[in-house]
Amino acid sequence: MPTRDELDLRNSVREQARDRCEYCQIRQDQDAYYEFHLEHITARQHGGRTEETNLAWSCHHCNLHKGPNLTGIDPRTNEITPLFNPRRDRWEKHFRWDGPILVGRTATGRTTIAVLQINNDDRVELRQVLIDQGLFPPKPVAGRPKKPRRST
Question: What is the 3-state secondary structure (H, E, C) of the chain?
Fold first, then answer.
């Protein structure tokens, strides 16, 4: 059973993400098969801590494909490139939507899309259904997200 502090941390990260996957932007209630994960941006096996500055809200698909990866190969340049970090990077700088397809604006965006397999057929199909229903993509939020608090 999670402690009160663990539940508070989980809820804080989820609220900061507006209940959306911080990589593909799908909302928890739009991805009915699996619960979202509290994902370590830098995996514990790489020294990542369980604190708000190292946690992201992630759908099952993105978390499963990201695994412990911190980098990947940019499909355009074949260079080793860092993955998107939801606590350091601005989503809009690295990504844009072209209908249900997520397009990388930068090497980090392209690499993250490739490693997390964000444009797999089933995910594109789900986003197209949501677009047809007027539920996707999410509307941008003005301003920078609030800084996460460090755990004590």
Answer: CCCHHHHHHHHHHHHHCCCECCCCCCEHHHCCCCCCEEEECCCHHHCCCCCHHHEEEECHHHHHHHCCCCEEECCCCCCEEECCCCCCCCHHHHEEEECCEEEECCHHHHHHHHHHCCCCHHHHHHHHHHHHCCCCCCCCCCCCCCCCCCCC
Q: Where are the domains of the chain?
A: 4-132
Q: Report the pLDDT averaged over residues 115-134.
A: 97
pLDDT tens digits for 38-74?
Answer: 999 999 999 999 999 999 999 999 999 999 999 999 9
> The tokens of 24 are what?
């593909």
What percent of the chain is predicted at pLDDT more than 90?
Answer: 85
In the predicted model, is pLDDT for residue 151 greater than 60?
no
Q: Which residues contact 83 (CB under 8 A, 6 or more apart)?
A: 66, 69, 70, 71, 72, 108, 111, 112, 115, 116
